[in-house]
Amino acid sequence: MIEKPKIKDILDVIGRSEHFTDYLLLIYGPVNQDVIISTIRLAETKLRLQQFPSTLISRTKTICAEILQNVNKHQIKHELYQPYLVIGSQNHNLYIYSGNIISENSKLNIESKLENYFTVKEEDFKEFYIDSFKNSVLTSEGNAGLGLLDIFYRSNRNLKYNIVKVAENLFSFNINVELHHNALVNT
Amino acid sequence: MNNLRIPASQESPSISFTADGIFRIEGISLVPNVHSFYKPVFEWLDEFEKNLPPKIRIELEFEYLNTASIHTVVTILKRLVAYTKQNVDLKIVWCYTADDDDLLENGQNFQNYVNHPFEFQPK
């Protein structure tokens, strides 16, 4: 998580990334629906400019949409920590990093879901994904609760995360997603 | 009955449903509350199903959609599939950008969700 809203801190965090060298997009600060729409449009423009394949662009857009909509729904205002989303690339692979502050209830919910997804065998995951959508129920607020599953699925399970306590009942949730160019051959 | 026409916005698709069974949904669906956005569709279908035409053709051309929208569009499609029990000939056409396997896979997943064959139309 990035502490203090200074561009230097953000760049330091990105600079420490061992995965990517080309930085395509960085969003920092509170998120709303307009920010989500604008971010996805900008990401698409940047990726098309760099001639990424359409499939990778579509996946990136969908994953960013789900990440940012989750941030929008669950973000907790904090004077030191702000949500961020970074898209980077290296060797034609794409990397999406994001982080935001969540409550303890959200932490438990996220951990439960992700730990469950990691237990499903790779060869069974497509069926698990389809069944989850078939059996899902929308809440009265219109949430399907399938955003993390969709991110996990579209990244071919290349998802890492950590949740770190930053204050009483407040946690920093960081998620790193990798989209491998080579994996598209098998889809 | 009147046709249903909802124009696209930066976060929602255009929707065109005609009383003679020509339906089309196109664009992005990233609406924050799917219940309120898609409510007119379900209300329109309530009237439409009182006098079903012999054929229904629905074309879907999504750029991307969030999981809540997937759930809701699938619910709409399941409702159309249910009309086939009343001898309605239903054709579901999934349009996608020819080199975009992710959009094609979305359509294949939709086909799985609703248990009705799709026609896949690359553009």
Task: Tell me the layout of helices and strands.
The complex is a heterodimer of chains A (187) and B (123).
Chain A: H1 7-15, E1 22-28, H2 33-49, H3 54-74, E2 84-90, E3 93-103, H4 104-119, H5 125-134, H6 147-154, E4 159-167, E5 170-179
Antiparallel strand pairs in A: 1-2, 2-3, 3-5, 4-5
Helix pairs in contact in A: 2-3, 3-6
Chain B: E1 4-6, E2 14-17, E3 22-29, H1 34-48, E4 55-65, H2 67-83, E5 89-96, H3 101-114, E6 118-122
Parallel strand pairs in B: 3-4, 4-5, 5-6
Antiparallel strand pairs in B: 1-2, 2-3
Helix pairs in contact in B: 1-2
Please characterize this protein's 3D structure:
- Chain A has 187 residues and is an alpha+beta fold.
- Helices cover 43% and strands 24% of the residues of chain A.
- A five-stranded antiparallel beta sheet of chain A has the order 1-2-3-5-4.
- Chain A starts with 6 loop residues before the first helix and ends in an 8-residue tail after the last strand.
- The mean pLDDT of chain A is 87.
- By secondary structure, chain B is an alpha/beta fold.
- Chain B has three helices and six strands, in the order βββαβαβαβ.
- A six-stranded mixed beta sheet of chain B has the order 1-2-3-4-5-6, covered by helices on one side.
- In chain B, 35% of the residues are buried.
- The mean pLDDT of chain B is 96.
- Chains A and B meet through α2, α3, α5 and α6 of A and α1, α2 and α3 of B.
Question: Could you write a compact summary of the structure shown?
Answer:
Chain A has 187 residues and is an alpha+beta fold. Chain A is built from 6 helices and 5 strands, in the order αβααββαααββ. Chain A has a 5-stranded antiparallel sheet.
* Gross geometry of chain A: globular
User: How is the quaternary structure best described?
Assistant: heterodimer
Write down the Rg of chain B: 14 Å
What's the overall geometry of chain B?
A: globular
